[in-house]
Amino acid sequence: MDSTFPRTIVITGASDGIGAAAARLLSAAGHHVAVVGRSPEKTAKVAREVGGDHFVADFTRLADVRRLAAELDHAYPRIDVLANNAGGILGDRTKTADGHERTLQVNHLAPFLLTGLLLDKLLASRASVIQTSSAGARLFGHLDLDDLDHDRDFTPHRAYGTAKLENILFTTELHRRFHDQGLSSAAFHPGVVATSFGTESTSLLRPLYQNRIGKLVLATPERGAAQLVRFAQTEPGVGWQSGEYYERGRVARRVNPQARDADLARRLWDRTAELTGVAAG
């Protein structure tokens, strides 16, 4: 990314939680923030607060993602940062209208598709692509390319952890394919944050996010957003290293062993491109 200021920053999942907090902090720093969310009312409200544009898309529908990409491409001559922040641990195993397990689609397929459709503009802008991942990738994730929809091994935690692992692999493969053309990428774990995360889930963690005592011990959305804000505002190679996964503000030392498998990252990219119809790279 070059030193353009203010930057145009697109944040998905920005109608609440970490995304909304990041939008407020980046707007206060003088950047132009495009707020993307699923709820028309909540998304518009955050956009009014930050003085930015808002775009509505439901990532359980890939047609929405394609429409969103077209709208963003039309709205902005350049995009300096794409923050793929939308996602979460969802409920019982269900298929979307596109035929994919919902956790996989919302957390991995949709951001892959959005990034791919905007890739020419991101390359021309020498942009950064930021993925909100999770330590759940290490705790629960296991990627089987022959069973991306978890037909054989579904639990909410397994599906979520694997999707967050896919975020990390997507980050490393973006770096490998496009960093020499000016694109940078990073993934990060925001911590355990007091947001609406998990409210659609049957996860055992759901009560932690919903009761008052739990919220007292969780990090604030602003703290959770701090790394996203850092990646959006600072230069890759100076403030952070492209292609890496971060926890607690630094490159993570302990990761799922699959996260370091370069061949798996390449094969996941190719398989995801087939599923989404994006042939970029």
TrEMBL record:
Q: Which residues cross the membrane?
A: none
Gene3D superfamilies this protein is in? NAD(P)-binding Rossmann-like Domain
* InterPro entries assigned: NAD(P)-bd_dom_sf, SDR_fam
Keyword list, A-Z: Oxidoreductase
Q: Which domain of life is it from?
A: Bacteria
Query: Which SUPFAM superfamilies does this entry report, sorted A to Z?
Result: NAD(P)-binding Rossmann-fold domains
Descriptive protein name = NAD(P)-dependent dehydrogenase (Short-subunit alcohol dehydrogenase family)
